[in-house]
Amino acid sequence: DVKPEFKEVPLVVGRFTEWRRKHSKSYRDAWASLSLPRVLSTYVRRQILGWDPLEDGTAVENMPWVGELFSGEEEDEDDDVIPKIVEEVVVPRVAEVIKDGWDPSSVSSTGRAVGMLQDVIVYVLDS
Questions:
Q1: What mean pLDDT is predicted for residues 59-74?
Q2: How far apart are CA 117 and CA 25, in angstroms?
Q3: Residues contacting 63, CB < 8 A, separation 6+
Q4: 3-state SS string over the chain?
Q5: 40, 85 in Cβ contact below 8 A?
Q6: pLDDT value at position 48?
Q7: Which long-range contacts (C-beta less than 8 Å, at least 24 apart) are formed by 16-19?
Q8: Is residue 126 over pLDDT 80?
Q9: How far apart are CA 19 and CA 119, in angstroms?
């Protein structure tokens, strides 16, 4: 069981944001911005568990967890959260899907695989 305030991505992000705003020195000293991607990775893994990018073609930026993380606020030390999560969680899922589901003899399957890789690589190269 999980306490209600930790059941969803926005609630966890809210706790980190509140900590950063109220106790910025403590937040920096604890290297919280480096911990946030790891903390959120469990939530993201749960959300992408059934995701098959070769079939449904959902782009990373259209995934629910991205919208839940993107606040549109000014830049801060947590700006690399999405690229880090993509690198640590999404890329391994993409590799698994390609390994198990890509048909190199299929033009449509190859096109979807290329599109998925182009989508993901933007985040990895930016981090």
A1: 76
A2: 38
A3: 47, 48, 51
A4: CCCHHHCCHHHHHHHHHHHHHHCHHHHHHCCHHHHHHHHHHHHHHHHHCCCCCCCCCCCHHHCHHHHHHCCCCCCCCCCCHHHHHHHHHHHHHHHHHHHHHCCCCCHHHHHHHHHHHHHHHHHHHHC
A5: yes
A6: 92
A7: 16/78, 17/71
A8: no
A9: 32
Identify whether the C-beta of residue 85 lies closer than 8 Å to the C-beta of residue 44: yes
Amino acid at 111: G
Size of the chain in residues: 127
Residue with structure tokens 């609630």?
Answer: 11
Residue 74 reports pLDDT greater than 50:
no
Can you tell me which residue has the tokens 């000014």? 74
Count CB-CB contacts under 10 A for residue 21: 9
